[in-house]
Design goal:
about 450 residues, alpha+beta, Immunoglobulin-like, 4 domains, 5-stranded antiparallel β-sheet, globular, transmembrane, DUF4179
Amino acid sequence: MVNVMNEYRDHNAQEWQELEAMKEHIDRIAVPSAIDEAIKNGMRLGRQRRRRRVLTRMVSCTAMFMLLVMVASVRFSPTVAAYVGDIPGLRALVELINYDKGLKLAIENDFMQKVGLSEEHDGIKMTVDGILADESRVIVFYTLTNQDGRKRVVNLRNVKLANNANTSTSYGASDFSEKWVSKQGTIDFNFHEGTGIPELLELEVKFDEVNETATSSPVWKFNIPVDKTKFEGKKETYAINQTVTVEGQRITFGTMTVHPTRIGLEVAYDPANTKKLFYFDDIRIEDEKGETFGTIINGISASNISETKEVLYFQSNYFSKPEKLYLRASSIRAMDKNKLEVQVDLDRKKLLFRPDDRLTLVDVGTSSENGQGVLVFRLDNDHPLDEHRQYHLFSSTYKDASGKQFESNMTGSTENEFQYYIRKAEYKSPLTLYVEDYPSRILGDINLRIK
């Protein structure tokens, strides 16, 4: 391995310097534990949530070599080189490939559409570099450039398609230093069932902050052409239609649709089940060679159809053309339906009802940032599957003792503590919160032949 790295360094000095600079930058990033799982949990059920995108810290020689191989394959693969030469957002592509093997296959199979549209406001230039699109999804690759070195960008906001509101949107958020030069990222548009992809995407974007002294809030607008001939008819459908039972809970797997950028699997939960099934820990699609394609971890991972039905999204194996396919899982997070409510006595600062004694109330306080109330919980959990997982415990909807419904607009977590923010209001205590995910499980081998 060392010889290979030395040989590459000797013949590609400039590229090696770029890789070393990338490594040094990554090593300085403070990475929260299990960011992938936090993204997965936060975006479950198809809600639009912004999550901070970070690169995993890479400190070992082996990890550096893996990054080297990955970047080299993107730069020098014959099917990809034509795009990399013209698309500035190389690092965004590398990062995205690192997360999703299905998107890597799509790029390697000439599926990227180049765009190259730019617009500038207040010294900030945004360039739409390219898109990946199929009949269910469009991923927009973009680059931000700090033209005069003075402006700041905090986060994207109000990202939408002006000519198509029937979409769910996922996009990352990044920290920007005072001296940032350029940043790359992606915007993921999930088109709802029955919604066609338009031939022109009318993208509109705003930012939280462009300039501390700016008096306006400009909108970056792009009319992005979509070549629908690249993906029309490119999908495969499998009617699984099989029901399994795990610890008495019935689950039916319906139709699976394989698109070039992702796989959608219909899942139905028997209304007569005694437990609420939150999420599969290890569900995956596996081919005859043992190659696995797991659920999407950096984007929209599921969409609700109804209270008992949803579509789970997996990384796509469309371009690998497997001979055999299996659906496999062994662990599902679930809880008795009569334990799904948590009651908080605001006056006495105590829990009146909780799923089990692992959940405790640490504090009932007020946020110093915006004056909202904040409920701080502690979740003690030593399960091996949860070693690096941070839970999104509760639904955004809660109610007080009068039955009045409210919406929480913010949550947070630090290690084993969870913060749930509540509106400024006159509440009739206690408050009732609804459990959305929890470290309790049912176990059983699921092994279904798909193809």
